[in-house]
Write a structure and sequence with these properties.
The chain has one domain: TIM Barrel. It contains seven helices and nine strands; from the N terminus they run βαβαβαβαβαβαβαββ. It has helices spanning about 25-35, 65-75, 95-100, 135-155, 175-190, 215-220, 245-250; strands at about 10-15, 40-45, 80-90, 110-115, 160, 195-200, 225-230, 255-260, 265-270. A seven-stranded parallel beta sheet has the order 1-2-3-4-5-6-7. Strand 4, helix 4 (about 135-155) and strand 5 form a beta-alpha-beta unit. Helix 5 packs across helix 6 (about 215-220). It is globular and about 50 Å long. The structure holds zinc ion (2 copies) and fe (iii) ion (FE) (2 copies). The site of one fe (iii) ion (FE) has 4 residues, from loops.
Length: about 280
């Protein structure tokens, strides 16, 4: 059964909670929004804590992690939507010592690996956007993809979050430079058996485009990298937002399958059919 505004039969695997200090809405409100849109399953992936002072403004403290577990456990009643438990963990130089110990001890379904910082610069933070005007854009993107290579080599994460996040404010390298610098990162992602997400948050940002671009997604497809879908919701209305466009993008890149995940094991399924204009 479908209803007006219904989303496609795709899980939303990227959802935040107020514990990160920049999202609003209780987990049950995100779940209710997903139910109203016919989304079959959702995974909460709030910003992971660290054991250092790395970017404390945008994540729960380590001492709040039990509260996060409890919040999600409380709404894991039978669906739809099924509720999965995950985290968006930052990759940065030196993150490995903590994550190697901590991640395997948690009952996660999904661990997203994301890069939000180049050295001390939060390059996707609107408050630090002006820095883009002072840097070499292509060199900056190259540093970013070098961090993605390192992220993949750790084997700590299931997917890469928002693979071309540096485009958020529409500062971009040439297509040729992008292909040359992203190739090694995509190779490392494929070697690690990792997936990537089609993250629709970019539609709500200045760039106005899903992460990753069609070109990147096509190169990922060529390497057999599996995909999932995420809204990167920071408020309940964001859940499932942009998924019809994301499905179109997946087909345009040549994908016919996506994966669902449980306890960090991926299972491939056929993509749902493209919605017909009259349905
Ligand atoms: Zn966030
Ligand atoms: Fe992120
Ligand atoms: Fe996120
Ligand atoms: Zn994110």
């Amino acid at each position: 059964m479908t209803s007006l505004g219904a989303s496609l039969d795709l899980p939303d695997y990227h959802i935040h909670t107020p514990l990160c200090h920049h999202a609003v809405g209780a987990p049950e409100e995100y779940k209710a929004a997903a139910a109203a849109k016919g989304i079959p399953e959702i995974c909460f992936t709030d910003h992971a804590p660290t054991d250092t002072d790395y970017d404390p403004a945008h994540r729960m403290a380590l001492g709040e992690f039990p509260a996060y577990c409890g919040m999600i456990a409380d709404i894991r009643t039978p669906g739809p939507p099924e509720v999965l438990f995950g985290v968006e963990a930052d990759y940065y130089a030196g993150c490995e010592a903590f994550l190697e110990r901590w991640l395997p001890r948690q009952p996660f379904d999904l661990v997203i690996g994301s890069v939000h910082f180049i050295a001390a610069w939060g390059f996707d933070n609107p408050d630090e956007r002006h820095v883009w005007d002072a840097v070499d854009v292509t060199a900056t993107w190259r540093r970013y993809f070098d961090l993605i290579c390192r992220l993949a080599k750790t084997r700590l994460f299931d997917i890469v979050g928002h693979l071309d996040l540096p485009k958020k404010f529409d500062y971009r390298p040439s297509d040729a430079a992008l292909e040359e610098m992203a190739g090694p990162a995509l190779d490392r992602i494929a070697e690690a058996g990792m997936g990537i997400e089609l993250n629709t948050a970019g539609l709500r940002k200045p760039v106005g485009e899903i992460y990753p671009s069609l070109a990147l997604l096509t190169w990922a497809r060529g390497r057999g990298i599996p995909i999932c879908f995420g809204s990167d919701a920071h408020q309940p209305d964001d859940v499932g937002e942009g998924f019809p466009k994301a499905l179109e993008l997946a087909y345009a890149a040549g994908y016919t399958e996506y994966f669902r995940i449980r306890q960090r094991r991926k299972t491939l399924l056929p993509l749902p059919p493209r919605p017909s204009p009259l349905s």
